[in-house]
Amino acid sequence: MKLFILFALATLAFAEKKAFAPKDFPKGRPFSAAILSGGTLHVAGQVGARKDGSYPEKFEDEVQQCFQNIDDILKSAGHSMQDLVAVQVYLTDMEMFARMNEVYVKNVPEPRPTRTTVGVAKLVGKARIEITVTARK
Length: 137
What we know:
The chain is 30% helix and 28% strand.
């Protein structure tokens, strides 16, 4: 039995990595949209930018766009929001926490994953929020 457990752990340690991205994910970025390794999907942080690079004016719409971007990536890897096990949220203004949470609960189904929310000084571009997720079927 111990040999089997060691073999299983070694297999996970050397699990092959596979990258996923929606067809319209911008090319030439220095990172993958998502990496599947050992059965766990790690999704890169997503801001609320639209496909054309613009940001919604209303904060709640920016949060919704983050979730749309995440959902597109999850689907490209055969996953869904139901598969989320961990979420990290970065906000440039912690006063927007309650507004973010209203959109969050509409997008993330029960049982909700673990979550960390952190206030940061600045994010890329005009982003006020960035969300990264981990998923597992």
